[in-house]
Amino acid sequence: MHHHGYLWTGPKARFDQEALRRPPHPEPPAPGSRPELIQRYREVAAEFPASDLPPLETAYWLLKPRSLVRGTWPDPGEAAAWLGDRLTEYTHRFASEAQRDAGRLASLAASAAERLGSGGDLSLGFYLERPAYLSLSLVTCSPNRADLDLPCPLDR
Predict the structure, then answer these.
(1) N or C, where is the chain less crowded by C-beta within 10 Å?
(2) CA 127/CA 57 separation, integer angstroms
(3) Structure pTM?
(4) Are 1 and 140 contacting, i.e. CB atoms less than 8 angstroms apart?
């Protein structure tokens, strides 16, 4: 088992494009379906795997391009340390003063190690200034307990 780190930051309006943050349905629309439904399915099927947008379900990061992996660690503590470093790096940009509390951020990093150690995933999100958004995720891989069939991006 190992853990992958992901980071996305960008305009909140782009983050809110939920259709691009979910994988396409496993089965395409039936023949004879409305043309707009077929077109939308094709768009999502083409865009989801290539998009850098965070998926709605954390485990689906594993379906994204390998280039989006910011780090890989066999030890949950090392993955949590990466998370703590990213929180420190972005703290000054957090829109909310309460989110900048050093004790709270340290607690988030510590609980990340615990969660990863038990095979779970972790996603955190923060509003930044100018309405922007920061998404940080740590995904347990090989296997991921949310979906045992998800491939490791390092194997592709």
Answers:
(1) C
(2) 19
(3) 0.91
(4) yes
